Amino acid sequence: MKPSVVEQMETLVRHFDAIRETQAEAARVDARLAEQVDQARRFAEAVVRDAARDPAALSLAARVPRAGWDTAMIAEREFVTELACTLRLPVRSAETLIAESHTLMNELPGTRAALQNGAITYRHAQALINQAWSLPAEALAGFEQALLKSAPHLTVSNLKHRARVLRERLHPESIRARHQKSVADRRVFFEPEPDGMASLHWYDSAEKVKAGYDRLTVTALSSQGPGEKRTLTQLRADTFADLILDGVTASGVGRGIRGTVHVTVPVMTLLGHSEEPGELEGYGPIDPDTAREIAARAPSFIRILTHPETGAVLSVGRTRYKVPKDLKRYLRVRDATCRWPGCRRAAAHCDLDHTLDWQFEGLTAHDNLAHLCPADHALKSETRWSYVHLPDGTLEWTSPTGRRFISEPVTIIRPPESWRRSKAGPPPEQVRPADAKTRPPESDEPPPF
Question: Per-residue b/e over 323-337, b at no fewer than 16 CB within 10 Å?
């Protein structure tokens, strides 16, 4: 017998109740995670303090060869980066989580309680935390109490708005002074999106961003007419593309891509015998038609044709320190980004690091080189993090506590037999003798790492 309308509604209510309970359970898990992160942070800080009070204790800096950072700095970076790898987060996101956890556990008890009982989600908690960070301690209680009354019934967006308005009223420092400090954080960042698309975000003073958006809108509106089929949204996007790429709109002069990036195109795709996607550096797969067009017509793109039997030079052994151009190109295609687990900085803006240092008999070879951004390059040099280079280009990182994390290459290109390392075996285990030379005897330039 078919359920009545009332029975169907009761069943639907149970579904919604189950969904809400699952959301509340997730909030309780988030509260527990924040507590665990803050406990780990306090424990790590206590270890450093105890070591500093014990004259007989060996400082952390003394255990890291060639370390230029002090013990506190090493301990802080080791904790943050291992947490990032543990949670599979970017380092900046891990730093944010640590700061949020500290605020929840020590400064916003009401928000923590609401999260623990499932009354709000972690995104609601973040809306309060982000505005509370810049408030003085004496204003926090009133700020939190006023917002938690309605937070369980508001969307995150609405709560953010209310929190921002209330913060303006309670903050003792003028908005002008705070704005002047915030201007230093202005930035533009790139975000890959699905289906061959991407976003470009511009964070700057509100008046500049709003003026820029209004200019795009006015210019787009001027392009509308009886024969124009594009929507205003599409016209606004096309106007922005014309201005940012060419400095002029479609009716102006000076067209042409100004940036220089790598596009990797399989040979069979380039010849039209395959529909395998190309690879746009810093983004990922692009459709084969776009890859062919870029490879054929855009002079500012560097074409790299991949083939199992490519003739790229993969090793120069111990003959010189400086990495030759064709090997750099091979490594840039293989890595695409920094090889620290989770880092997405483009290889074009990274250093090439000898896994086994040159001064300890490391080779200038494809299986002893990897891209590391300056921050992660310093991390390897200044802390107890280390890694080994596996034959397929995978890097196996070992954390200060001995845990292991994997960084896989973006593109696996099989080296040609003629350029593979000799069968003498892998390089010796890296050691750091006290009397080791700090500069290779036959380098083309002083080794930065």
Answer: beeebbebbbbbbbb
301-306 vs 351-354, strand pairing mode: unpaired
Evaluate whether 440 touches 358 at the Cβ level (below 8 Å).
Answer: yes
Count the helix, strand and coil residues of the chain and give each as a percent rounded to the nearest 5: 50, 10, 40
Strand-strand pairing, 261-266 and 197-203: unpaired
| CA 369/CA 55 separation, integer angstroms | 40
Residue-wise pLDDT tens digits, 309-354: 444 434 444 445 578 787 888 888 889 899 999 888 888 889 999 8
**CB of 137 closer than 8 Å to CB of 107:** yes
Helical H segments across 265-396, by residue range? 267-270, 288-297, 325-335, 374-382
Distance CA(258)–CA(300), nearest Å, equals: 7
- Could you write out the DSSP letters of every residue in 183-227? GGG-EEEEEEETTTEEEEEEE--HHHHHHHHHHHHHHHHHT--TT
The tens digit of pLDDT for each residue in 177-207 reads 655 667 778 888 888 888 888 899 988 876 6
Query: By the 8 A CB rule, do 340 and 292 touch?
Result: no
Q: What letter does residue 58 receive in the DSSP assignment?
A: P
Alpha-helical segments (H) within 247-324: 267-270, 288-297
Q: CB under 8 Å to 259, separation ≥6 — which residues?
A: 300
For residue 31, give the nearest of 144, 106, 125, 149 by alpha carbon: 125
The DSSP 8-state label assigned to residue 315 in this structure reads B
Q: How far apart are CA 121 and CA 152, in angstroms?
A: 9
Contact by Cβ (8 Å): 307, 329? no
**Between helices 109-116 and 5-53, what is the axis angle to 10°?**
130
Structure tokens at 185: 């954080």
